[in-house]
Amino acid sequence: MKAVPLIGIARHRLTIDGEGVTTLVAFHGCPLRCKYCLNPTSLQPDGVWESYDCNQLYEEVRKDELYFLASCGGVTFGGGEPLLQSEFIRQFRQLCGPEWRITVETSLNVPQQNVEELISIIDNYIVDIKDMNNNIDNAGKTILDIFENTAVIHGKRLAVKDPVRELTYGELFEQAQRMAAEVGEVLYPEEDGEVETGFPIAILAEKSCSELAAVLASIYAGSFYVCINPEQTESRISSILNVLEPRLVIVEDKQTEKLSRAGYEGKTLSLDALVEKAKAGNTPEAAMMKLMKIRREIRSTDPLYGIFTSGSTGTPKCVLVEQQSVMDFIRHFVEIFEFTEEDVIGNQAPFDFDVSVKDIYSAWMTGASLLLIPREYFSTPPRLLDYICDNHVTNLTWAVSALCIISGLKGFGYRVPTELKRVMF
Fold first, then answer.
1. Distance CA 27, CA 350 (A)
2. What's the predicted TM-score (pTM) here?
3. Between helices 143-153 and 355-366, what is the axis angle to 10°?
4. Chain centroid to CA 139: how far?
5. pLDDT digits 0-9 by tens, 33-52
6. Nearest to residue 311, comparing CAs of 242, 240, 233, 227?
């Protein structure tokens, strides 16, 4: 069988590519050249991820057959323009049989015979309507749609790295979903109970790959997240939690005692245990079904994160920011400053500081890599500069005080980061 070029395969997609749990198979190649193309990799000569023939693809995706059959899901062909590969899709249907639902996401900008050839074997068509209005690119999407699109295109690229661990976009996607399924089991123990969105989950942990996965998992669980820096005093942590009244606190094991001393008596989940369970895989089918149910309810108008004020005038106050606001801002931010998937963003700000929003979501929107820089590195400029230079950092969006530390301690006399493109504050 003839092999066809793909730009990615994404598993466990919930309610966004047709019914049930789906696996998205994204083809390389498209006859259109849309200004705001979601998958520009499909147009680039070097954008091919892998090439599969029908048998290879079937063996790759059938590992999720249990989810397909239990949820009336299946395979969605997108890209690129999938109907350019109509013969391949027809052969794939012969292999998988009638039990899986097959969906194609298409512009229909193909020869009529390509459409006619598949009419009898395709269960659902998602037809992309093209519009000339430049202001509606993100309308109706959520942060999860943006991230998942990036995970499809850049699944094997580095998403995030700290001094001890790193995750590709594909790994971050899968780990966060499995963590979110565990969170859903705690929040909604009844199998057929109602779900909701827009409630708070607090995360008490040091900045790390695991904390970022917990952020994404919280969004998948339908919540807005509030990261709490464990360097905060117990009294401030107590004040934040009293105001927030979180449905759940995800806490690093080494911060559990501090959380207890802050007086919190509500539900908790161990971040360390969540990560280990996610690595092990084998998420129960019922938990994935519940996650799919939550995913259907998430909207772009839902709050995404909360940032607490200093509390200098009294009780700390939580400022909420919705998903649409972040998407609108970041889309213009990455366009104006020309971020691409080749960028490496050196993150200085802790996740409870709003500067980190530019770092996290610029990476998720473009496929850039996020390098998490520990706070203690700033006390030793040579160590900091080695970390920046050795990891090929191209962008710094830092607090002015952090920039001044390097220059004040004459760090550039030791080593200059020559790959930097932007320094912003």
1. 38
2. 0.77
3. 50
4. 18
5. 776 677 888 888 778 899 99
6. 240
